[in-house]
Automatic annotation (TrEMBL), chain B:
Named cofactor requirement(s): [3Fe-4S] cluster; [4Fe-4S] cluster
Cytochrome-c3 hydrogenase C-terminal domain residues: 228-309
Transcription is among the record's keywords: no
Protein name: Uptake hydrogenase small subunit
Organism field: Prosthecodimorpha hirschii
Top-level lineage group: Bacteria
Lineage of source species: Bacteria, Pseudomonadati, Pseudomonadota, Alphaproteobacteria, Hyphomicrobiales
Binding locations of [3Fe-4S] cluster: C276, C295, C298
PROSITE patterns: TAT
Assigned keywords, A-Z: 3Fe-4S, 4Fe-4S, Cell membrane, Iron, Iron-sulfur, Membrane, Metal-binding, Oxidoreductase, Signal
Length: 248, 362
């Protein structure tokens, strides 16, 4: 295989050259996740960690602070961190949606499920079998594998939208009846007239997203080790590299 | 029966209330409605010149706590004035007339003040068995309600019962007690929730409507904004302790004695829209939180059916055992976490014991 300088520099980046500048692994590599998607992914992950931790402590506050009330603002800071991270999450999510108009095909994946595609359903089955140790190896996928795709759409995309809507509805209660938050998200209280229910649902939503994060991080690490393609580095560099050249 | 042309002012003068008291009443009410000093003059003017708006007060399934609250309005003047204004027409619990004589008043008001009177409803109609669970004057209350609503200008839904259903509508609601706005669809309805609503809020609403002849500005749920646009939590005097993170952790602990925030004791102030933390109760003497107990959210939709009064969040009954959001979510997360650990272990075992495939040395 002829090694172009471009190939070499890419390969060097991935550390797959030997000392004589020979490419040892030059498995096909495809640019999957463009920079905005990657930046969004990590900013979003960070925001969600902050939201889940602070949200938990809003629901079950820390033990009482000693001394005078005027000396502390603990709950205030926790809530402030939650709301700030909430804004990061919401603005990030909006930008991520906008990016689907400019980005590549993969940038649209988490926003819909190709339920009309037979191969996609078959792919889910095969991935399930792979996770049940019934397949010797998984298929290779450029974007998300079908099972990951389902989890991302159902547990991440839908619930993040849900958390943003309920979050801003709750925020509008403090911001006041004339705030833009109330104008944009106040309709939530048409369906749930008692905001206690919105608190409860927002709280349950946190657990859905926590469950998603647990499965997601485990799957990312596991696939990084077990599958025939790179995972975590793909979300860092954007490049997907395949570890063999067999088909299927 | 008052003639159509008689003004409110003429009525109270006839009742022996002085002009001085009348002006005081206008000032006081304007202030309690959050209106400026000019409004007091406008109010006096309106009450002196405009024909009085009749009020019919009906009772469905209820406990009369709304009436009880109303007649204990802080300022005796307010109570007397407003009460005389109402009992002149019809309130079957406190008026002197009874039987056919009383029912005749309804008929008369309906004809004489078509489209002009206010229908104030305390309690709600049960709809099951054609409304037979609440018979009033020989008829199901629901029929009486619909009949009087036909020609009313607007309807006041008093309290949690008329606004949301309250305890008689608690699951499984055998009588199918139903809030007013689910029965009457074609009239403006103002909800004044609370169990009971605060007296000053009630008199304020009645005065506003009878004075200006229109409903005050309402929020999304149909409640008057002037009293229900903020939560107990937004104006609670314990709020600094909330922001500082100082909570009562158990009844009678040190924090309770120091008046810390009752959030951890299940205070529903953060989800309850009412005027308690500003207006307070019994003439501004106190309100539940000031007495050391959390708010139970008595003015909120479904407050009777959402689990313990000592939990901020709704109890989730769908799983058989009563649980809260953290128990359900935590359990699911725990199971998933354990499953992930088992799966990881199985993967490791598989990988170590399995034949090395070409992919591992790729
Ligand atoms: C240490 C933590 C994390 C790691 C290592 C990680 C890793 C990854 C990897 C490797 C992918 C690409 C998957 C593929 O190629 O099929 C990915 C995608 C994704 N991750 Fe994470 N992730 C982490 C945390 C999170 C968190 C906390 C969330 C949110 C709850 C999250 C949400 C997502 C989403 C929505 C995608 C799809 C991205 C897209 O297509 O736009 N990740 N992550
Ligand atoms: C994945 C995203 C999020 C998670 C996991 C999360 C989690 C939580 C949790 C667990 C609570 C406590 C609920 C309770 O027990 O009453 C909470 C409260 C709240 N969250 Fe979020 N949240 C998220 C997103 C947002 C967003 C986008 C906003 C919008 C700014 C937001 C605004 C709020 C507000 C206003 C409260 C109520 C605070 C209070 O009552 O003092 N949240 N959140
Ligand atoms: S006592 Fe209740 S209403 Fe008052 S600050 Fe605490 S949680 Fe809010
Ligand atoms: S403090 Fe809460 S429960 Fe008590 S009267 Fe006011 S709204 Fe009702």
């Amino acid at each position: 295989m002829s090694v172009t300088s471009d190939d070499r520099s890419r390969a060097v980046l991935r550390g797959v050259m030997d000392a004589d500048d020979h490419v040892i692994v030059s498995g096909p590599s495809i640019y999957v996740y463009e920079a905005p998607v990657r930046i969004w992914h990590w900013a979003n992950a960070l925001a969600i960690v902050v939201l889940a931790v602070t949200g938990y402590f809003i629901g079950s506050p820390l033990p009482s602070m000693p001394g005078e009330a005027s000396d502390h603002f603990l709950m205030g800071y926790i809530r402030f961190a939650h709301f700030s991270a909430g804004y990061v999450l919401a603005i990030g999510f909006l930008c991520r949606i906008l990016w689907t108009f400019f980005g590549n095909r993969h940038s649209r994946q988490i926003f819909y499920l190709p339920v009309w595609s037979g191969t996609w359903w078959a792919g889910i089955l095969r991935e399930l079998r792979w996770y049940m140790f019934l397949e010797k190896e998984p298929y290779k996928y450029v974007g998300h594998n079908p099972l990951a795709h389902v989890a991302m759409f159902l547990m991440f995309t839908l619930f993040t939208a849900f958390m943003i809507v309920t979050g801003f509805a709750l925020y509008s209660e403090g911001a006041g009846i004339d705030s833009w938050q109330a104008k944009l998200f106040g309709w939530v209280f048409t369906y749930f007239p008692n905001s206690q229910d919105v608190h409860t649902l927002h709280h349950l939503g946190m657990w859905v997203i926590v469950v998603f994060a647990v499965i997601h991080i485990y799957a990312a690490i596991r696939e990084d080790i077990m599958s025939r393609q790179t995972m975590i580095s793909t979300m860092i560099s954007g490049e997907r590299q395949f570890r063999d050249e067999r088909e299927g | 029966m008052a003639a159509a042309t008689e003004t409110f002012y003429e009525v109270i003068r006839r009742q022996g209330i002085t002009r001085r008291s009348f002006v005081k009443f206008c000032n006081l009410t304007a202030a309690s409605l959050g209106l400026g000093p000019i409004a007091a003059a406008e109010m006096a003017e309106a009450l002196e010149t405009k024909p009085r708006t009749p009020v019919i007060w009906m009772h469905g399934l209820e406990c009369t706590c709304c009436s009880e609250s109303f007649i204990r309005s802080a300022h005796p003047l307010v109570k007397d004035v407003v009460l005389s204004m109402i009992s002149l027409d019809y309130d079957d619990t406190i008026m002197a007339a009874a039987g056919h004589q009383a029912e005749a008043i309804l008929e008369e008001t309906k004809q004489k003040y078509k489209g002009q009177y206010i229908l104030a409803v305390e309690g709600n109609p049960p709809l099951n068995e054609d409304g037979m669970f609440c018979i009033d004057g020989g008829k199901p209350f629901v029929e009486k309600l619909k009949w009087m609503a036909e020609d009313a200008m607007a309807i006041i839904a008093w309290g949690a019962c008329a606004s949301w259903g309250c305890v008689q509508a608690a699951k499984p609601n055998p009588t199918q007690a139903t809030p007013i706005d689910k029965v009457i669809k074609n009239k403006p309805i103002i909800k004044v929730p609370g169990c009971p609503p605060i007296a000053e809020v009630m008199t304020g609403v009645v005065t506003y409507i009878t004075t200006f002849g229109r409903l005050p500005e309402l929020d999304r749920q149909g409640r008057p904004k002037m009293f229900y646009s903020q939560r107990i939590h937004d104006k609670c005097y314990r709020r600094p302790h909330f922001d500082a993170g100082q909570f009562v952790e158990s009844w009678d602990d040190d924090g309770a004695r120091k008046g810390y925030c009752l959030y951890k004791m299940g205070c529903k102030g953060p989800t309850t829209y009412n005027a308690c933390s500003t207006t307070r109760w019994n003439g501004g003497v106190s309100f539940p939180i000031q007495s050391g107990h959390g708010c139970i959210g008595c003015s909120e939709e479904g407050f009777w059916d959402k689990g313990s009064f000592y939990d901020r969040l709704t109890t989730i009954t769908q799983f058989g055992v009563e649980r809260n959001a953290d128990q359900v979510g935590g359990a699911v997360a725990g199971v998933v976490g354990a499953a992930v650990a088992v799966h990881a272990a199985a993967t490791a075992v598989k990988r170590l014991t399995g034949k090395p495939t070409e992919k591992t040395d790729a």
